[in-house]
Design goal:
The chain is of the alpha/beta class and 192 residues long. The chain has a single domain (2-157), classed as Rossmann fold (3-Layer(aba) Sandwich). The protein has helices at 15-27, 52-63, 84-94, 106-111, 118-124, 160-168, 179-188; strands at 2-8, 32-37, 69-72, 99-105, 127-130, 148-150. A six-stranded parallel sheet has the order 3-2-1-4-5-6, sandwiched between helices. The termini are far apart. The relative contact order is 0.20.
Length: 192
């Protein structure tokens, strides 16, 4: 199977994540999309993150009605901070029958050359890139790599940061979250 790895803190997962993941599941050669819940990004602080298992539960609830989407806690037991190249090596060792690909936004693709062992990632794994609205100063020519596929997916302008702030401010943001995710966040009083 060809599996797309869609990494994120998912703090919380929202409709934008689902739209992109489902678009790739239905309109690419990927057989499954694993939404990999990242315990701690080397580029982000951990202080605003919900517990790993709470975020995994949110992803589980969000994806349960999508047969080609699956939550993944693969990074929970890897040394922290973890790097994508280590996760890929671990997955290849544990699942040699599968081919793995990365899914990332256009903004992350621009920073990819700065990642740990970026040349290993770029040389050995297909990368599926979804569009992001970028300000003109950050736009540049297309990334030059034979492994990069640009996906004509909808541009989604919803962020987990915005959602957390809106919940804290007492705003109704139900439309931005799958109902099962909203219900769990509300029940647990997250982000308030």
């Amino acid at each position: 199977m060809k599996i797309g790895l869609f990494f994120g803190t998912y703090n919380p997962i929202h409709v934008g994540h689902l739209i992109i993941a489902n678009h790739l599941a239905e309109h690419s050669d990927l057989d499954q999309i694993w939404l990999v819940v990242t315990p701690q990004s080397p580029h982000k602080t951990k202080q605003s993150l919900l517990d790993n298992h709470q975020r995994l539960e949110l992803v589980f609830r969000a994806t349960k009605d999508y047969p080609k989407l699956a939550p993944s806690a693969i990074e929970f037991n890897l040394p922290q901070p973890n790097y994508t190249v280590r996760t890929l090596a671990y997955l290849e060792e544990k699942h040699p029958e599968n081919q793995f690909a990365l899914i990332m936004g256009e903004d992350n693709l621009r920073s990819l050359p700065k990642w740990k062992n970026a040349e290993v990632i770029m040389g050995n794994y297909p990368i599926y890139v979804y569009p992001r609205k970028m300000n003109p100063s950050s736009s540049s020519a297309s990334f030059s790599s034979e492994t990069v596929t640009y996906i004509d997916a909808p541009i989604i302008e919803v962020s987990s940061t915005f959602i957390r702030q809106q919940i804290k401010d007492g705003k109704n943001i139900k439309a931005l979250l799958p109902m099962a995710v909203w219900n769990y966040i509300d029940e647990m009083n997250f982000y308030k």
